[in-house]
Amino acid sequence: MAKGKHTVQLPVTKRKHVDKVSGLNIEASGARRDKEKPLSIPRILRTLRVALSALAIAALASPIAQQTISPVWGAVTASVNHAQAITATVLLGYVWRAYYGTHTWSILPYLALLAFWTPAIQQYLFQYSSKLGPVAGPVLLGFASCHTIVIGCGYAAAQAIEVLDLQTQLGNVAGVALPAVLLDFGYFRPLEYVLARLGLPWIQSATDLLSPTRLQPLMAVALTVLSPERPWWLFSLGAPALLHMLLANPHFDGPYNMAIANRDLAPTNWTLLDRTWSNTGYISVLEDKNLNYRVLRCDHSLLGGEWQLTTDRRNSGWLVNEPIYAVFQMLEAVRLVEVEKKPADSAAQALVVGLGIGTAPKSLMAHGIYTTTVELDPAVYGFAKQYFGMPSDVASGQVVLVDAISWVDAAVDSGDRKYDYILHDVFTGGAEPLSLFTHSFLSHLRALLTPDGVIAINYAGDLAMPLTARALNTIDQVFDGQCRAFRDAAPSSSTNPMSADGFVNVVVFCRNSPGGVRFRQPSRKDFLGSKSRETYLLPKVEWEVQFPPRSDGNLTFNTSRQDVLKKGDERLWSVQVEESAIKHWRVMRNVLPAKVWELW
């Protein structure tokens, strides 16, 4: 018997796999197998190039799908369970190939074809958004435009890696589980997180060339280039998808597509004036030609709007454009709060967190108050100037395009400036950003107030939800109970004005110095020629809500005065944020026609 170690190669699967990178049949080439071991460096590098590239495309597909779904369903509702789903679908695709794939042809050409047609699939499904609703809709669209691509990329990664014979080297279970977990949690998820949170928002705020709708066909091209096989049918079936995107899809950022959108919007009497992608999502300006009002849209929410000063309205006594929402004029009532030492407007300083269309900052500047506005999205500022008359005169104020938390933290640390008035009005993705309602952030805002300063905080939500009670409790705690709160509209319940009746805007007025919140009567000068200010500037006593919210006979909150929103607790409230976003989605569907949301 010959001496030495004897090994017997046991078949791991029944399939013959082909190294598509090198084009070599592994089992049919013994000479090549002897020359290049399965775990040789060249083979590992070639394999990783394909596997990592496929997963990189999957990591890009995830935020792109989220961004293109958000205009129809909102960023929050579109993101429900998304992180968990993409993690599972990568593993599903990998395990599917490792244990059940028997073919030798590459899946990548078919995946590329699906990616080419994804914009058309989305366009078709969007028209059923009202029937699908805010729960089933994002799930269906997420599967059609994201998870199918991610599963396929996970499958392609496993198909590339199988030439390394890891199941032979490590065993049937470890040979699949180890690379799957490493690729998913060690590569795909971190890369997806960086692209979604940092990469794409930064790129899209800097240039329009890489918008989500333009990245969709580029992703399909990348899959085509990565594929070792490029059958003729891929080009013949993919070309019509590109033509449809360029000539018939209202969502694409091409030279003709905005005209397509306006053609399809014509029956609703709405016109799309402008649109862009930015770091907070899809931003657009629309105008109702029938009722003559204009709105600024971010994904599936409105940042504000104005009734236009038409000839008929001018003849009826209008002098200026009027806001469509009373809440923005109610915020201006910070000037009406009575304090001991109130500065003249010309000597006052104001800070506005959140620009919108600029209603409140414009009014403060019109009164001669130097106003600093902190806004995250440069596109919002650009459209506010171009379509809503936001002044850019540095003598009357400044707009700082930066994250509010970092700016406020830096302002507190520097201690250079105090503000007589602060307006806090932020809303995004169909829900309030809880990080801007934490105890630490609101405490920093209070630190920026002068001793006799006043703050107005707009909170949009459902008064029946514990999250709303917690947020309002936090405001109450930070400002030592020196606050009052008002709705922006009359409650629907005529018997109990304090009862919760759905999604509303609540404006909370707080003073920095001890004492109650009382408003002086406004004068003609305070109205700035606006008829709606005459009605809504002074908060109405009959619209006042219990502050902070407590048991009022209809509701009982399990919330004490010590329960506040703390930094780092935002994730604990994700379920209620999602519920609030769903309610807001339904509110928005009653504000604008479904077709306006669906056509972007």
Automatic annotation (TrEMBL):
Transmembrane feature ranges: 47-66, 72-95, 107-126, 138-158, 170-188
Signal peptide (residue range): none
Domain of life (superkingdom): Eukaryota
Keyword entries, A-Z: Membrane, Polyamine biosynthesis, Transmembrane, Transmembrane helix
Classification via Pfam families: Spermine_synth
GO biological process, one term: polyamine biosynthetic process
InterPro entries the record matches: SAM-dependent_MTases_sf (IPR029063)
Protein name, UniProt field: Spermine spermidine synthase
Originating species: Teratosphaeria destructans
